Amino acid sequence: MRSIVNSTFVSLDGVVNHMDKWHFDYVDSETDAFALDQLMASDAMLMGRKTYEVYASAWPNRDGVYAEKINSLPKYVASSSLTEPAWQHTTVLSGDLVESVRDLRAGPGGPILMHGYGPVAKTLLGAGLLDELHLWVHPVLAGVGGAEDLLLHAGLNVVLRPAGQHTFKNGVVVLSFRARDAG
Quick one: CA torsion of 36, 37, 42, 47, rounded to 10 degrees? Predict the structure, then answer.
């Protein structure tokens, strides 16, 4: 069975969006190398519509190892409105999200990497379909956004097991967790 691995940037105050306000000062060669390792260990990507739109507008126009890998990977985007994706190797999951991802996990292949922590990730975590969660905790209080921009999601109560940590020289700490009920 394939695993779903979520990798998400988060500020100390739990903000996962508005990265233009707090994230990009922490991008360096060390974090880039770690992100590339995560991508290279993956056989596909899964994302929600918003992440897909940002990525599809940026990655096809970039060069380098990371761009080549992300552009060549099969991509699955959960969307009820996207009908004709322009980014190569993209399949739209337009039906029931939980059922579609269960089918995807049951198929052949290796880990599926998911970037972003929005409604899709929260739904999958709540349904026991997100196997690993890697939180890139940034040493900054973002001080922006609303409830929809936070790691916190009312009613989502999931027990996670620590699976490791990695501290970068720039102060970012990746906290890794495995979901107890993934499956």
Answer: -40
Under 8 Å between Cβ of 116 and 47: yes
- Residue 22 has φ and ψ, to the nearest 5°, of -145, -20
User: Whole-angstrom Cα distance, residue 99 to residue 19?
Assistant: 31
Its pTM stands at 0.93
pLDDT per residue as tens digits for the range 110-163:
999 999 999 999 999 999 999 999 999 999 999 999 999 999 888 888 899 999
Q: Which DSSP state fits 165?
A: E
Rounded Cα distance between 85 and 82, Å, is: 7
Cβ neighbours around 166 below 10 Å, total: 14
What are 138's strand-pairing partners?
11
- Pairing outcome for strands 112-115 and 4-11: parallel
> Could you tell me whether strands 44-48 and 132-138 are parallel, antiparallel, or unpaired per DSSP bridges?
unpaired
Residue 33 sits at the vertex; the CA angle it makes with 112 and 27, to the nearest 5 degrees, is 105
Query: Other CB atoms closer than 10 Å to residue 41's CB: what's the count?
Result: 11
- Enumerate the domain spans of the chain: 4-179
4-179: what CATH class? alpha beta
Helix, coil or strand: residue 147: helix
